[in-house]
């Protein structure tokens, strides 16, 4: 019974609560609206980024492209709308200031870029001023009498043409360091007549005496022209041989050592450092050899090499490695005859062989002289036999005479004997000569007392001091060798 009463009470309470809730909803629905109009405020959908335009610009990111892409998706009316003229009351002052700053940064230049551009402009102006000032300074008069004497064709004066001439001369002198030879005199003064041959023979190296080629299998290989050893050994009796290469010393020195191992044939060696560079040409200026040009002969295969003195040149075709080549051997008779004649100037003789193949032309001329010599000789012998009445009276038959020899034949005969003698001496004593030379160089280096400390404290020694030290060391070595010989 009690349980029944308790359940009825709970049910009545639930009904009462539901009825009160229904009454509240009805009252709320019947209440009149107090707001006839409402203003709704919406927040922006996009979120502000922590990366400002300045930070993006410093990082190398173009912020304008971002703005352009967003503008391209917006409405046409909103693209043309000026932020300054926006009269919407809902636009805040902060938004207007942001739009204004964005418009100012439309040039994509940060403060760092502006500073860099400013400094660059200063540098350009300073460079232009230095260039103009330096050009004006180069037009000044010559500084001293020595410089004025060196440029006789450009006198002092401040007229426009003279200033321009001095400007070109001085500017050319700046680049002349790279275009001109390292020395004004490439060779030392010649020794007196008995110790120096009368003529100087200048020989090219590449494609004249040797030929170098590269292959994937062997790399660089250099071949000597056929007859080169005999050519140098034989003509070294008559000529002061100067080897003049168009390549640098570091590239050609080993090749030259292979040609003249014992340093018995080539008197001097010149390389690219002694050439002149003009208009894209590598020129070997013979006037800088410190020799009489009337007694200088040059053999080369490149016209550029003898462009300044073509009258002194014997041109050859480039040798490309043909093993049957005999050009050097064919030139020996002509060069030997030229060196044995009392000639004061070789240029007129070389001019007479111009546009001719010298070996054949010389052989033709020599055959004419030989025939004339033999005819005169046979006529003289016939005249002598006719006047030899004693032999005819006794019935003695005159001896048969061999073919006559010209003076040039006797000279060649003696030269061949000297050549063979020199070759035998080199074969016997050549290695000993090289060993003695190496020992002498080591001795000279050990006697060298010039140190790095002296270079820093005292500077470079004078040429007289170097020469005196070398002579003293040489004298000391000779005395030691003499003492060893006496023992």
Describe this structure in words.
The protein has helices at residues 2-30, 53-58, 63-73, 76-79, 93-104, 111-138, 145-150, 160-179, 228-235, 249-259, 327-340, 347-352, 358-387, 389-394, 407-447, 452-457, 463-486; strands at 199-203, 210-215, 219-224, 239-244, 268-270, 276-278, 281-283, 296-300, 313-315. It is an alpha/beta fold and 487 residues long. Among the domains are: 112-179, no CATH class; 193-355, Rossmann fold (3-Layer(aba) Sandwich), CATH 3.40.50.1000; 448-487. A hairpin with a 3-residue loop joins strand 2 and strand 3 (219-224).
Topology:
Layout (H helix, E strand, L loop, with lengths): L1 H29 L22 H6 L4 H11 L2 H4 L13 H12 L6 H28 L6 H6 L9 H20 L19 E5 L6 E6 L3 E6 L3 H8 L3 E6 L4 H11 L8 E3 L5 E3 L2 E3 L12 E5 L12 E3 L11 H14 L6 H6 L5 H30 L1 H6 L12 H41 L4 H6 L5 H24 L1
Parallel strand pairs: 1-4, 1-8, 4-5, 8-9
Antiparallel strand pairs: 2-3, 6-7
Helix pairs in contact: 9-11, 11-13, 15-17
A few lines on this structure:
The chain is α/β, with parallel strands linked by helices and 487 residues long. Among the domains are: 68 residues, no CATH class; 163 residues, Rossmann fold (3-Layer(aba) Sandwich); 40 residues.
């Amino acid at each position: 019974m009690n349980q029944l009463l308790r359940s009825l009470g709970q049910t009545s309470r639930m009904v009462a609560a539901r009825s009160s809730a229904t009454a509240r909803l009805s009252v709320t629905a019947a209440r009149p609206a107090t707001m006839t109009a409402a203003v709704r405020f919406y927040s922006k959908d996009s979120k502000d980024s922590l990366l400002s335009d300045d930070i993006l610009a410093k990082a190398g990111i173009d912020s304008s492209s971002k703005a352009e892409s967003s503008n391209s998706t917006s409405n046409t009316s909103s693209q043309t709308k000026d932020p300054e003229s926006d009269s919407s009351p809902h636009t805040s002052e902060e938004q207007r200031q942001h739009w204004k700053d964005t418009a100012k940064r439309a040039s994509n230049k940060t403060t760092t870029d502006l500073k860099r551009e400013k400094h660059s402009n200063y540098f350009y102006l300073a460079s232009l001023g230095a260039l103009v000032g330096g050009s004006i300074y180069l037009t000044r008069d010559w500084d001293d009498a020595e410089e004025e004497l060196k440029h006789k064709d450009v006198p002092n004066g401040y007229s426009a043409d003279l200033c321009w001439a001095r400007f070109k001369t001085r500017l050319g002198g700046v680049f002349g360091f790279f275009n001109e030879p390292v020395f004004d005199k490439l060779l030392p003064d010649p020794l007196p007549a008995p110790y120096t041959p009368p003529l100087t023979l200048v020989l090219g190296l590449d494609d004249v005496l040797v030929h170098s080629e590269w292959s994937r299998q062997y790399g660089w290989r250099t071949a000597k022209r056929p007859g080169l050893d005999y050519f140098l050994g034989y003509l070294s009796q008559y000529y002061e041989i100067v080897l003049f290469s168009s390549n640098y010393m570091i590239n050609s020195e080993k090749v030259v050592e292979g040609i003249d191992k014992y340093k018995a044939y080539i008197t001097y060696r010149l390389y690219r450092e002694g050439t002149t560079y003009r208009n894209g040409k590598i020129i070997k200026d013979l006037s800088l050899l410190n020799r009489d040009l009337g007694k200088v002969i040059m053999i080369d295969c490149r016209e550029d090499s003898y462009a300044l003195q073509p009258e002194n040149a014997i041109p050859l075709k480039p040798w490309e490695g043909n093993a049957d080549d005999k050009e050097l051997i064919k030139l020996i008779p002509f060069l030997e005859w030229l060196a044995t004649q009392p000639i004061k100037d070789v240029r007129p003789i070389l001019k007479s062989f111009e546009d001719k193949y010298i070996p054949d032309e010389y052989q033709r001329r020599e055959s004419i002289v030989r025939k004339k010599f033999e005819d005169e000789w046979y006529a003289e012998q016939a005249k002598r036999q006719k006047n030899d009445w004693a032999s005819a009276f006794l019935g003695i038959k005159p001896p048969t005479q061999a073919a006559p020899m010209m003076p040039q034949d006797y000279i060649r005969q003696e030269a061949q004997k000297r050549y063979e003698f020199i070759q035998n001496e080199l074969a016997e004593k050549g290695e000993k000569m090289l060993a003695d030379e190496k020992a002498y160089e080591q001795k000279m280096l050990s006697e060298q007392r010039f140190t790095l400390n002296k270079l820093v404290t005292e500077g470079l020694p004078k040429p007289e001091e170097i020469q005196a030290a070398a002579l003293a060391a040489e004298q000391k070595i000779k005395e030691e060798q003499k003492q060893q010989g006496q023992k």
